[in-house]
Every structure is written in C-alpha cells, then in structure tokens.
C-alpha cells in the first residue's frame, strides 16, 4: 500500500499546516549542477528541511571551507536521490496496476503480473505481444509516456504532493517567463521514466525487433529502422521503429525518447 494521501485529503491537511515557499529549481536533476555555489545560493532555504542543523547557515560566507555548506550540498543530493527513488517506486507500482486493470495475463500461468519484473517478462513474451499487437503497443505507450500526462497522472500528482507534504514545502516560479513544473515533479519523473524507457526499449528490440517512441529518430539513426506513425488512444502520436532485415543494431544506441 502507498503511504501518501489522496487529493481529497490535501485541502484539509494544508489548512492545518503552513507550507514554506522554496524555488522551483532548488534541486537540479543533474548531479553535476548541485555544486557548492548552488548550495550557497540556496542556503536560505536549508532551515526549512532541518531547522536544527541549518539554523545558522545564513551567516556562512566561506563557500569552499565551511563544513555547514558542504553538509547542505550533501543534503540537497540526498533529497534528489529520495525523489528519484520515490519516482521509480511509484512509477513501477502504477505500471503493475495498469496491466492488472487491463487484465493482462501471462500466457504460461494465466495470472496477472504482481510486480514490475512480471510486467517486463510479459512484454518480452512473444505469445502475449503477438496475440494483439495493437493493444500491446497501446498499453506499452501508456507505461512509457501516457501515465505521466494530464488525465492519466493522478497517481503522479499524489506522489509529488506526498513529498511536498513531508517537508511542508510549496514551490514558486523563479522567473515570470517560464514557470516550469518544479524540481519535485521533474526529479520524480525524469529519472524513473528514463530507466523504464531504456529497459522496455531493450526488451522490445531483443524480443520483437521493434520499439515505440514518442518522437522521431534523427535521420542518421532512421537508416536502421522502418518508421510507422501510430495513434495512441485516439489522442497521441507515437512512432513504431522496426529493425530492418539484416541490420544488426545496438539496442541502446538509438536516442532515448
């Protein structure tokens, strides 16, 4: 069972708890950008996460040598890892529920998947995939892209709000021109979706000699594949790439989409 609340519960809880504003770019998704300078520029928000440890960090001016600044940098990296792990856990959990709700059954056992490895095994199974390729491609697109999009992402919004509730924070835009989605949503989605896309792409290429992408491949990579445009759930456009006969491809060489 997930530990976060449903959206209906948030209004009541947020009325009782004060949420501290933090910038939407507090935690970069790229580890190399969590530098000491970034820690210094965001030090005024450190006390929100640990008021005891970072009570006096606002007075720190020595970026390189003060241990408190290094602790805040490490803390930001730990928060990013926490978001990455939360995103992968909740993404894979939701994928299992998607396949269960669609009544996807393993041809060998007649049972639905109960774990993410079960889902990957099912996708690799030629009997399941070839029985209804239209359906298989639709549900695989959902797990790769659709479940993060408006109308299908209530679970994702709940996961993001769980993290905000845990630390009593709310993100604010740092520029008027572009608000963005904030570091919570970015960290939860980007790492998880990337890992899931890579594993599914590899499995599809190895077992079915095709894979699905939401974007077109660059021209130089298209030489190895035939491209077919798909319509997903009568709403989204996707592209099916089939390996050309006689072309030996590195399943991880094409650009991840």
List keywords for this structure.
single chain, 257 residues, mainly alpha, three-stranded antiparallel sheet, two-stranded parallel sheet, 5 strands, elongated, disordered C terminus
What does this structure look like?
This protein has 257 residues and is mostly helical. The chain starts with 6 loop residues before the first helix and ends in a 14-residue tail after the last strand. It has a three-stranded antiparallel sheet. Strands 1-2 form a two-stranded parallel sheet. It is elongated. A hairpin with a 3-residue loop joins strand 4 and strand 5 (236-243). Residues 1-6, 10-14 and 250-257 have low confidence and may be disordered. It has helices at 7-16, 36-41, 46-49, 67-101, 116-124, 126-131, 133-144, 154-167, 182-208, 219-222; strands spanning 20-23, 169-172, 210-213, 225-232, 236-243. Helix 4 crosses helix 9 (182-208) and helix 8 packs across helix 9 (182-208). It has one domain. It has ten helices and five strands. The chain is 49% helix and 11% strand.
* Rg estimate, integer Å: 22 Å
Helix content: 40-55%
Strand order in space, largest sheet: 3-5-4
Q: How many distinct beta strands?
A: 5
What is the end-to-end distance? 31 Å
Mean pLDDT: 88
Structural class: mainly alpha
Major sheet summary line: 3 strands, antiparallel
Question: What order do the helices and strands come in, and which of them pair?
Answer:
Blueprint: H1 7-16, E1 20-23, H2 36-41, H3 46-49, H4 67-101, H5 116-124, H6 126-131, H7 133-144, H8 154-167, E2 169-172, H9 182-208, E3 210-213, H10 219-222, E4 225-232, E5 236-243
Parallel strand pairs: 1-2
Antiparallel strand pairs: 3-5, 4-5
Helix pairs in contact: 4-8, 4-9, 8-9
């Amino acid at each position: 069972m997930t530990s976060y609340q449903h959206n209906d519960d948030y209004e009541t809880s947020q009325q009782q708890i004060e949420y501290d504003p933090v910038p939407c770019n507090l935690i970069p998704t790229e580890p190399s950008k969590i530098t000491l300078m970034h820690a210094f520029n965001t030090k005024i928000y450190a006390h929100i996460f640990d008021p005891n440890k970072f009570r006096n960090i606002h007075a720190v001016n020595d970026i390189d040598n003060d241990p408190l600044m290094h602790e805040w940098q490490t803390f930001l990296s730990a928060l990013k890892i926490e978001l990455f792990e939360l995103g992968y856990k909740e993404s894979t959990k939701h994928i299992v529920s998607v396949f269960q709700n669609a009544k996807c059954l393993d041809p060998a056992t007649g049972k639905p998947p109960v774990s993410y490895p079960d889902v990957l095994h099912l996708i690799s199974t030629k009997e399941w995939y070839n029985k209804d390729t239209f359906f298989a491609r639709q549900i695989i697109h959902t797990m790769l892209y659709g479940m993060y999009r408006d109308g299908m992402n209530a679970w994702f919004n709940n996961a993001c709000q769980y993290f905000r509730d845990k630390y009593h924070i709310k993100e604010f835009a740092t520029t008027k021109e572009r608000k963005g989605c904030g570091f919570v949503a970015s960290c939860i989605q980007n790492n998880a979706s990337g890992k899931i896309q890579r594993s599914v792409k590899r499995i599809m290429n190895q077992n079915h000699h095709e894979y699905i992408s939401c974007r077109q491949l660059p021209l130089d990579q298209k030489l190895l594949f035939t491209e077919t445009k798909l319509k997903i759930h009568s709403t989204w456009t996707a592209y099916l790439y089939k390996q050309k006969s006689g072309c030996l491809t590195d399943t991880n060489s094409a650009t991840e989409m």
